[in-house]
Amino acid sequence: MSKKAEKDFTGASKYVLDAELAEIVNISMALEMPLLLKGEPGTGKTMLAHAIAEATGMKLIILNVKSSMKLIEALYQYDTLTRLNDSRFGDSKRDVSNIEEYIKMGKIGQSFVADEKVVLLIDEIDKADTDFQDDMLDVLDQMQFDIIEIDKTVKAKNRPVIIITSNAKKDLSDPFLGRCNFHHIAFPEPEMMRDIIKVHFENIDKELLESAIRTFYKFRDIYGIEKKPATRELINWIRALKADPDFRAKDLLKGNIPFLGILFKKSHDYRTAQAAVNKIKE
Amino acid sequence: MFVDFFYLLRRVGIPVTPTSFLTLQKALGTGLVNSLDDLYTAARAILVKSEKYFDLYDQAFAHHFQGAALKDPQEEDFAEIAHAMLEEWLKDPGGLAKMLGIDEKELSRLSPEDLINYFLERLKDQTEEHHGGSKWIGTRGFSPVGHSGYHPGGMRVGGVSRNKSALKTAMERRYRDYSQEGPMTASQIGEALKRLRNMVPVGPKNNINVEKSIYETVRNAGEIEIVFDRSFMDRLKVILVIDNGGWSMDPYIELVHTIFNYARAQFKDLKIFFFHNTIYSKVWEDPQRRTRPHQIDDFIRLDPETRFIVVGDASMAPYELLGVNGSIHYEERSGKPSIERLRFMSKTFPHCVWLNPVLKNEWRYTDTIRMIGEIIPMFELTLEGLEKAVTSIMQKN
């Protein structure tokens, strides 16, 4: 591994990485296995792929999975419409009789044909149906797929580093899990959160940082909140607090908490949080 | 290496596959794993595929590599573990204990809260399996907690419910996640579900009919003529509400499974909620019915054209349907009887049906089926019943 050591992953400029996850990433890269990340929204699953790409200097290719998606779309597309158009009007330089000119690579396809090793992020795999997942397995396992129209097999030039994220809406199928490494990103502890905030706001006022984080974790503990505020919300909230000239960090601890709407986006949650705030005031 | 550890993981109930174990061996060969900490992380990432098992893994790891005793269940783990534990006990009911009536009157005076507290106390006291007797929880005793007992208002603690009317269910957290792939059901059921397709011949003409297009194009002497058809399964909003709790729904789980998977594939705008027994102030988005509640009152904001389908056996104690605080989950007390909630739903969504897996000829034995049937049109979950339900729900009125 020492040869590859310089490519090892230790974190990126805007991403705070814990040692455990770093190790899992490195092992997955060494084993050339996809890494499946689960965790509640806002724990930085998607950010991790960006960070890996940044840290290793590889290109990042993102496949955003949609519920209606068919695997073939992620592999390649046969652009029949352009071909039809060309055949009728004949004003392009493409050779109409050569179907290959009308094959466009999808995201997985791109990551296979890329000249250099890339990071392939398959985002929110759980949105797609199980057929998609199972079909994709074969492709990722074999690192090749067929283009039926031109009877050609595309093989991966370099095995991409594959990161798969799932919001845990439903469990993935067993064969799928069997071929991935797995990590569940827990919500960061206050300690970790401090580091994350510091990465996003250099020179943040210490008092603001402390009181914002303390308030934030208190809010997460309120019973009956449906969508707990996550890192993203906290960062936006602090941004708003910083932008408000009238705001003083001490106010938070007194129970004067502005911009609740940034933290709570569901009306039911907002009301619950508001009620909790009013209780503190009393 | 670590073969013992592999078997230990399997023994504590983590589904570890031999393939992943081989992968671990490969990982050890990469030179990346140099310490116990590394091993801990690497082995977990490779062997354990769900955060559900992380806790078990931690215990097993500590036990194997550091000699820690496999932990006794802590109080917090109680709810999760209690059910599994109870099930073990109750599986083995021992000899028939005779029904004894001495405590019946006194115990029936206990309020539901007292009952639950009593149950929790007993459960903590209990250290061994127990059948019969008057204090411990086991099977066939006459203590107010336990199952198959004969206490008039007793809680049910596992076991197949007999007359489907236990008033309080405490440790019955045996929720099934219906979204997982279940075993295949009879082709007859699949056939029945296909009829749900009748529901959706709406939407704009946005599907290209290739055959017709070719035909028309040829007829047109090669000038392209594209023929569009209506798309078949769009535009219909469906809310599916499933009763997924309790023993009384147990026999029908497979059936509900099929419905669930089918509905998911078929409808684009499908919301699925879960409840236990009947609907109170909220339904849940998560099958465990814990973390993501959805207020019933919020449904009023949805499109009244939404098709509202309830799947449940509608069998419960009349008290649970009519009582102001009828919910068997005591955190779910809402101040309005469930029957009011059901009326509200049927007003909010005029197109609603209740699919009941209990066969129609058995309905008359259960009062609550009749009562709910008067509010929401009820159909049995069979080929025939489903067809009728679909017809009813698609009526324009």
Characterise the protein shown here:
The complex is a heterodimer of chains A (282) and B (397). Chain A has helices spanning 19-31, 45-56, 71-75, 80-89, 107-113, 130-142, 174-178, 190-200, 206-221, 231-243, 249-254, 260-263, 267-281; strands at residues 35-38, 59-64, 76-78, 103-105, 118-123, 144-147, 152-155, 161-166, 181-184. Chain A is α/β, with parallel strands linked by helices and 282 residues long. Chain A is elongated, with a radius of gyration of 23 Å. With 397 residues, chain B is an alpha/beta fold. Chain B folds into four domains: 3-66, no CATH class; 74-174, no CATH class; 187-200 and 236-394, Rossmann fold (3-Layer(aba) Sandwich), CATH 3.40.50; 201-234, no CATH class. Chain B is 38% helix and 10% strand. Chain B has helices at 3-12, 18-29, 36-47, 54-66, 78-91, 104-108, 112-125, 187-194, 210-219, 253-266, 318-322, 338-348, 367-375, 383-394, and strands spanning 205-208, 228-230, 237-243, 269-275, 282-284, 293-295, 307-311, 352-356, 378-380. In chain B, strand 3 (237-243), helix 10 (253-266) and strand 4 form a beta-alpha-beta unit. In chain B, helix 1 crosses helix 4 (54-66), helix 2 runs antiparallel to helix 3 and helix 8 (187-194) runs parallel beside helix 14 (383-394). Chain B is flat and about 70 Å long. Chains A and B meet through helix 1, strand 1, helix 7 and strand 9 of A and helix 2 and helix 3 of B.
